[in-house]
Amino acid sequence: MPGSDRVAQPYSPQAPRSVVAIRPRAFSVNQQTAADNAFQSARIDAEPGEMARAAYAEVTRVHEVLTGHGVEVHLFDDLSTGLTPDSVFPNNWFSTHAGGHVAVYPMWSPNRRLERRWDIIEMLKREYRVQDVIDYSGLEQDGLFLEGTGAMVLDHLDRVAYVCRSNRADPVALERFCTHFNFEPIAFDALDDAGRPIYHTNVLMCIGTRFAMAGFDLVVDEVRRAEIEDRLSDSGRDLIPLTREQVSEFAGNALELEGSHGLILALSTRALASLTSRQVAVIERSASIVPLDVPTIELAGGSVRCMLAGIHLGRRTARPRD
Fold it and tell me: Does a structural domain hold residue 3?
């Protein structure tokens, strides 16, 4: 859905050119995460094998569409035998950062800890300039969790980590990450319809280069809400408030990427259908919208942003641009 008034943008540190995606073979709704993930479907009519095949096909299609837009997708297959039902969401267990830095995170659910794959870290070292890998996973032994760019929505331009307090975002782990990676933490409380903390910040908020969209009204404290809005606005971004209903449709779970012809916003078809024409117009001032159909994967409580781990690293050999 290209916008006729879209302004071409130069390279932005906010929008990665490459991502990691995991194609699952044993996808299912994770029972260990149901307690605090209100976005997860409680009733599933499809057979497990049918769901797994559908999820596999959805990731395959995501790879094809994003590649067609000039985004490099490092696609890995999950060959585990049902032990990692949420493996399709790799952005929770690792992140990458300019300057050659990689972080590996402590995960709240025991079966999600099995998702960490050192072959992916080794691929990053081979293909990109990696200076160090900081492994926080040992914090699990102390009951301290920080689920990557699910728990944190990072403003790479203004160096701010926006974090909704939850089981998945411990303040001690957050402080350690922000100290190591030079981010300012801005933590806040946001509640779902049942009055429970939003489990991951990235279902609530998306920060692009020239815009930020978020369910600001879900932030409990009005003063903190105003501070977040002011900080994002002061960074020069257009603000797109999302309603509670739009957040529940995964409208906040989107990721800005750099394609071969400029910035794109990857989000699900379900999320796009919930946006108003005015909200779409604001996005299209700076980015083309690329809808991706992932209805099976969304049953597990995450959407497109959760599926893509952005690579903010310099390549060892520059990839030719179309």
Answer: no
Tell me the residue range of the domain where 24 lies. 18-311
In the block, residue with structure tokens 């108003």: 276
Q: What is the pLDDT of residues 55-86, one digit of tens each?
A: 999 999 999 999 999 999 999 999 887 788 88
Cα maximum dimension of the chain: 52
Residue 263: phi and psi, rounded to 5, are: -75, 140
Give the type of residue at 219. V
Supply the CATH number for residue 288's domain. 3.75.10.10
Give how many domains the chain has, as a whole number. 1
Residue with tokens 């691929």: 123
CA-CA distance, 211 to 251, in Å (whole number)? 14
Tokens for 311? 């690579």
| pLDDT tens column, 179-196 | 999 999 999 999 987 788
Q: Classify residue 132 by burial, with Cβ atoms within 10 Å: 0-12, 13-18, 19+.
A: exposed
pTM: 0.91
Distances 194 to 16, 35, 121, 197, 203 between C-alpha atoms, Å: 35, 12, 38, 9, 16
**Residue 5 in domain:** no
Assigned domain for 322 exists: no
Report if residue 321 sits inside a domain. Answer: no
